[in-house]
């Protein structure tokens, strides 16, 4: 960025300006009346009157440049602060490059003022000879030239500084640096630790403000970038928690007066302190704010929130931080509850997809207990969705649990049998006829898992699914078999974030549908004889 904004423009503009000055002076020196003069003589011979005349205008120009720069920068920063977050103003004022440029303009103006003041014409001022600050005049001219040359690059820097992606990246980098600032015990007092905590927390809130304002402005790109930055910040933080000062994790001082913590009781605060998860909790709270706002105004952003929440969970798995994972699971459950309360099928559908990916990562890492807990949550939300008319979510949960069971079998997870038991209980709460008839998708998911077991040679596991289904009505069994055999393509005819069809199976696996249904009595699966055919017989 230094080369692109400062070095290249300054080199080009400065070189072009001085080349033009040199060329013009050379042309003037070629005129007959200037014969014998050199450029060095012109620059080195300055009378007191000439110096005063020159310096009288230079100071005014430098002051005018300073006024223009401050005015333009103030307007642009204020517009950006109104659109994204008011804290941009504080960031801009504290920026080192901005302070350095402003300081250069101010010092140039003050320097030219005192050089102009020191010019003396001699006897009229009680001095025996005139005084011309030759080097001061040249330095002032150099400062004025640099000030003029810096205006264009500086405005480019201001616009680059206020670019939304750069603002978000700068906040994220600063928050990570403050969180991971590691000092040996005893070298940092409690007040300094508390200040660092508040700076990191403030950065999270700044990112959330930018995301919420972007949602209000219908700016999906900035909102997505900001959500990703919150997730990336936590992902970068989690692996290094073991190296941090234990005082960092305590909710006390200014941190305890934060809006998200002040309303908690002492037991809840102690739990967060003991599990060392206040920053993960705070970051996920910001994602939850974005999630709530997105439900009504920008549904596409919900997937980004769920993805970044999963990334935080994966970082916790990689670091072996079970407490941080529990926080992630709680927020996934909160996302699902919000979606069910608003009956937002699309939101729940996308959240479930990322939730399932997290469960699969847990299986790969051998965290069987946590996977079983997530499967229980899946079953709960499936049964909650059924009575309120969201049967599609129940079917989605069933197919997601089907995939989780397949991964558990493939990885030889100790949770395999327990996951299968939970999977077969997804539809147990359906008691009303209308509810029961809408659970065909659950049965299809169970048939799909049975074919997987049969393909792997696990007839005993497939038999468990058969025993759960053997009391189904014959007409339902016949239609389920026919519909699953009819699915021969994995291309859905509408836009589908998951990229496939739930019922689809590869041809070599689909043939096991026939084998599974052979276990049912032939009379159950034989089409009923119509009354006319029975009379003819």
TrEMBL record:
Keywords: Membrane, Transmembrane, Transmembrane helix. The keyword Hydrolase does not apply. The chain crosses the membrane at residues 6-24, 61-81, 101-119, 131-157. InterPro entries: DUF2254_membrane. The keyword Transmembrane helix applies. Pfam families: DUF2254. This is DUF2254 domain-containing protein. It comes from Chondromyces crocatus.
């Amino acid at each position: 960025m230094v080369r692109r904004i400062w070095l290249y423009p300054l080199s080009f503009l400065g070189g072009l300006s001085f080349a033009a000055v040199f060329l013009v002076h050379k042309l003037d020196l070629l005129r007959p009346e200037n014969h014998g003069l050199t450029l060095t003589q012109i620059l080195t011979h300055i009378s007191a009157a000439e110096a005063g005349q020159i310096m009288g205008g230079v100071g005014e120009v430098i002051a005018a440049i300073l006024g223009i720069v401050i005015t333009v920068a103030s307007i642009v920063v204020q517009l950006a602060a109104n659109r994204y977050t008011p804290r941009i103003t504080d960031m801009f004022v504290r920026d080192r490059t901005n302070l350095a440029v402003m300081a250069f303009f101010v010092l140039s103006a003050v320097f030219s003022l005192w050089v102009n003041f020191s010019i003396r014409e001699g006897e009229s001022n009680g001095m025996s000879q005139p005084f011309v600050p030759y080097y001061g005049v040249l330095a002032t001219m150099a400062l004025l030239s640099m000030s003029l040359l810096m205006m264009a690059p500086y405005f480019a820097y201001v616009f680059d500084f206020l670019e939304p992606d750069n603002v978000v990246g700068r906040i994220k980098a600063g928050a990570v640096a403050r969180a991971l600032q590691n000092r040996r015990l005893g070298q940092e007092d409690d007040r300094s630790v508390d200040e660092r905590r508040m700076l990191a927390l403030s950065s999270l809130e700044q990112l959330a403000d930018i995301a919420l304002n972007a949602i209000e402005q219908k700016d999906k790109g900035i909102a997505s970038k900001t959500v990703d930055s919150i997730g990336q910040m936590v992902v970068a933080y989690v692996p290094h928690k073991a190296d941090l000062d234990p005082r960092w994790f305590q909710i006390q001082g200014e941190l305890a007066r934060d809006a998200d913590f002040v309303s908690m009781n002492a037991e809840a605060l102690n739990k967060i302190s003991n599990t060392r998860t206040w920053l993960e909790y705070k970051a996920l709270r910001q994602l939850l704010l974005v999630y709530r706002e997105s439900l009504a105004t920008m549904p596409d952003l919900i997937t980004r929130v769920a993805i970044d929440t999963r990334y935080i969970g994966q970082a916790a798995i990689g670091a072996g931080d079970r407490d941080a994972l529990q926080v992630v699971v709680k927020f996934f459950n909160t996302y699902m509850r919000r979606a069910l309360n608003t009956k937002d099928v699309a939101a729940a559908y996308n959240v479930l997809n990322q939730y399932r990916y997290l469960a699969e990562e847990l299986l790969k890492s051998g965290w069987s207990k946590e996977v079983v807990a997530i499967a229980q949550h899946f079953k709960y939300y499936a049964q909650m969705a059924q009575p309120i008319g969201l049967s599609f979510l129940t079917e989605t949960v069933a197919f997601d649990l089907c995939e989780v069971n397949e991964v558990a079998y493939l990885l030889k997870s100790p949770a395999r049998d327990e996951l299968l038991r939970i999977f077969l209980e997804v539809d147990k709460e359906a008691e009303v006829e209308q509810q029961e008839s809408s659970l065909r998708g659950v049965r299809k998911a169970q048939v799909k898992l049975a074919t997987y077991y049969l393909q792997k040679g696990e007839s005993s596991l497939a038999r468990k699914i058969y025993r759960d289904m053997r009391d189904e009505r014959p007409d339902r069994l016949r239609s389920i078999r026919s519909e699953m055999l009819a699915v021969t393509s994995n291309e859905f005819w509408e836009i589908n974030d998951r990229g496939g069809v739930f019922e689809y199976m590869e041809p070599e696996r689909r043939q096991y549908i026939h084998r599974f249904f052979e276990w049912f009595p032939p009379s159950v699966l034989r089409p009923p004889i119509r009354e006319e055919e029975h009379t003819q017989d």
